[in-house]
Amino acid sequence: MNKQTILIIGGGITGLSAAYYLQKNIQENNLPYQIKLVEANNRLGGKIDTYKRDGFTIERGPDSMIARKKPGVKLVEELGLKDQMVRNATGQSYILVQGKLHMMPKGAFMGIPMEIDPFLRSELVSSSGKERALLDLEMGKGEEMVDQSLGSFMRRRFGDELVDNEIEPLLSGIYSGDIDEMSLMATFPNFYQLEQKYGSLIKGLNETMPKPAQTTGKAPGVFFSFKDGLEVLVDKLVEKLDQDSVLLNTRVDHVEKKETGYHVLLDNGEVIEASAVIATTPHQTLPKMFSEFDFLNVFTDVPSSSVANVALAFEQSAIKQDIDGTGFVVSRNSDFRITACTWTHKKWPSSTPKGKALIRCYVGRPSDQEIVDLPDEELIEIVLKDLNKTMNITSKPDFSVISRWKNVMPQYTVGHIERIQKIRKEANEQLPGVYFAGSSFEGVGIPDCIEQGEKAVHQVIEFLQVK
Q1: CA separation (Å) from 281 to 41, 87, 284, 408, 448?
Q2: What is the mean pLDDT of residues 173-197?
Q3: How far apart are the first and last CA of the chain?
Q4: Residue 6, CB half-sphere, CA atoms under 13 Å: how many?
């Protein structure tokens, strides 16, 4: 019997997860399908990219996954990697406001005060700012809205000062976006639901957030990686795949709809005949790939931001004014160009040889995109200048690793969910058997992408079995 081909476009974590779960389904259920995975670059894994040098383990992209998000942990356990997992070391984290480091107040969630006393003692917000923020307890729920910006929602609840000094640097950093442009319902819908139910975010969080268990010693970190870096996950997924099913350095030029399925034209002139397609590439690639279908043109107006991270390796002794903590985020009310800093040797002790320090800084806020394109030397100089405003580093780094990620952070602007729903509806009608997944759609985190890859597999199998 001829096997039907299912084509996966893109070999990032979404595409790899889809390929793994698809191959697993085919083998376990003896299904008459075969997989082809096409990746434009010379490696699989997308933004997950671990670099080893001189005993250091340096993440060029994300450095961890959130442990409470089940799709990531489930996949790790299935792959037999649980014994290699490591949790991040916990410690004090900071927010930099107007050039000064402030301890993150205890009892806060994403910058929102759940405990009043620590909030009142904090120096992050002025007395009048605190008074304004606590109006959240009295103002009741806002009017029902389909969507709104995360910034306008938070400013209405807490005022500008708390938002700019504490909430914005925490929430914007996750999406590398502008809080005043980000969609509330696509990023933090739980905040809207709490407000509607309890009339106050502070009350709602106190009612619904699990209370920390009374334990002796430090609580386990909320993030996890692997002893040898996050790329362990990618390597294991690749190892599980049939190597003949993967095409690297191959770009999809065009997808043509045919009566029997799809003809996928590759940039090397080859044509793959596919019965179904899972497209996991960034949204800006889709209008050209599916150029016969105008409904995808909406993606040309969906912005993406660029970011860079600068990893600097030092002798521990070179850092004279060390800080007891795992890192800091930077508010808009500071003249820093870095947006955040991780003291990696403290957050992930296994990443760094004894007697060494590893500091990773991020640049590329929405209003400072040009910094990502600066030459290496200039970028390192800017980062060191910012670091030395809070630390005393007496020597140049032993080495640096700069990673630039151009236009890879999709921006979930207001109306994002409605746009995606409309696209999926149109695709169901005009492109049956084509499914879209990945960070441009329903979550930018690694577990979100894993979940989308697995969901697309179920949709494809259901489609082919009904067909």
Answers
A1: 12, 30, 8, 10, 15
A2: 95
A3: 17
A4: 29
Q: In the predicted model, what is the mean pLDDT of the chain?
A: 94
Q: Please state, in angstroms and rounded to a whole number, the distance separating the CA atoms of residues 402 and 384.
A: 13
DSSP H or E segment with residue 85: strand 85-87
Q: pLDDT, tens digit, for every residue of 82-137?
A: 999 999 988 888 999 988 999 988 889 999 999 999 999 999 999 999 999 999 99
Q: 458 vs 12, 239, 327, 337, 465, CA distance in Å?
A: 19, 22, 40, 44, 11
pLDDT value of residue 218: 65
CA dist 211 and 230 (Å) reads: 30
Above 70 in pLDDT, residue 464?
Answer: yes
pLDDT of 388 > 80? The answer is yes
Per-residue burial over 75-89, b if 16 or more Cβ lie within 10 Å, else e, is bbeebeeeebbbebb
Minimal CA–CA distance to 296: which of 420, 465, 167, 413? 420
CA atoms within 13 A on the CB side of 451: 15
Query: Going by DSSP bridges, is the β-strand pair 65-66/56-59 parallel, antiparallel, or unpaired?
Result: unpaired
DSSP letters of 404-425? EEEEEEE--BTTHHHHHHHHHH
Residue the block writes with tokens 């319902």: 185
* Distance of alpha carbon 346 from alpha carbon 316, whole angstroms: 11
The Cα-based distances of 105 to 88, 93, 102, 112, 282 in angstroms read 20, 9, 8, 10, 37
How many residues in the chain? 467
Strands (E) in 296-439, as ranges, are 304-315, 327-330, 338-343, 356-363, 399-410, 434-436
- 3-state SS, residue 13: helix
170-180 pLDDT, tens digit per residue, is: 999 888 899 99
- Coil, strand or helix at 438: coil
The model's pLDDT over 199-222, given as tens digits with 9 standing for 90+, comes to: 999 999 999 988 655 545 567 788
Tokens of 196: 């509607």
SS3 at position 64: coil
CA angle 24, 25, 29 (to 5 degrees): 120
Cα–Cα dist 441/422, whole Å: 12
Which residues partner with 310 through β-bridges?
A: 361, 402
Average pLDDT over residues 358-379: 96
